[in-house]
Design brief:
Helix content: 25-40%
CATH class of the largest domain: Alpha Beta
Strand order of the largest sheet: 3-2-1-4-7
Number of helices: 10
Strand content: 15-25%
Order of helices and strands: EEEHHEEEHEHEEEHHHHEHEH
CATH superfamily of the largest domain: ATPase, nucleotide binding domain
CATH topology of the largest domain: Nucleotidyltransferase, domain 5
Largest sheet: 5 strands, mixed
Structural class: alpha/beta
CATH architecture of the largest domain: 2-Layer Sandwich
Number of strands: 12
Bound molecules: zinc ion
Shape: globular
Number of domains: 2
Radius of gyration: 20 Å
Amino acid sequence: MSKSSSEVRSIGIDVGGTKILGVALGPTGSIVDAVRLPTPQVSDRDLGRDVGTSVANAIAQVITTLADRVGLDPKSCALGLGVPGMVAFDGTLVFAPNLHGAIGANIAKLVAKRLGRRDVAIDNDANCAAMAEHHFGVARGADHALLLTLGTGIGGAAIVNGVLLRGSNGFAGEFGHLMVDPRGPNCPCGSRGCLERFASGAGLRHLAETAFTSGALAGDVAASPETLLIAATNGDQGALAVVDRFCWWLARGIANLVACFDPSIVVLGGGVIEGHHLIMGPTASYLSGELEGGALRTPPLLVPTALGKDAGAVGAALLGERAQP
Ligand SMILES: [Zn+2]
């Protein structure tokens, strides 16, 4: 036990496809301590037997380790989970292509049972990240804000009239699955040509492969989104052209969202954005040209996330605080 409980107000867990991050929030919202574990990968053969068991065990382990280190009682402390998929209000993970070992499981109930508590607050990870940016980060004070996290896919969330938009089932904000090209590549959601096939890490990969096939990009540059972004940063013209195309798709997707939500700010996060200054400028510039009303209107601010990789876990902790009786 390294910290006293008076220093810590809640625990938030961000469950990703590859790792589980747990944070303990201090009185001012700063991260007092953090614990990470790899997300258990469940083979297709074991899916029927496991149904969330391995994932819930790992989440509970992160929580008990962190709670012990900061001096909180995992049975009663403010605690929230952010998970990568469509979460019903009762805590069931209805659909999650990046956490398929837990699809259909009520992750909140499974974790609560392991900790000996009545319940655990749960929401979609992008919803949690938006709550964190709205409370502590760049969207503080904004009544109308959107958040897009560009990782392998796209996570999305909307703040409308100062409140997180959840929808009738809890599924609002799945912006990555807006179809932008009916003839586009297949998407893990079962549809095709979804925005995230063009404007996420997977999108960057697709655009790079297309450029490689047409001879516009060298094979070593097209190998992965990371190699492409490094080459573009170093001034490789073929890579810069792919990044430019990527920015157009992202701007086009955001323009569609602006037509629906009229936000004052759009927060962009995720691995594709962080550390890569190549994306924000061209995307903002394309966005002004793509908006309905064009130069006659003020475009929303396009800003990178303030909380970065921690946003989901910090928002999950906030969710847990708000659910406390
Ligand atoms: Zn899709």
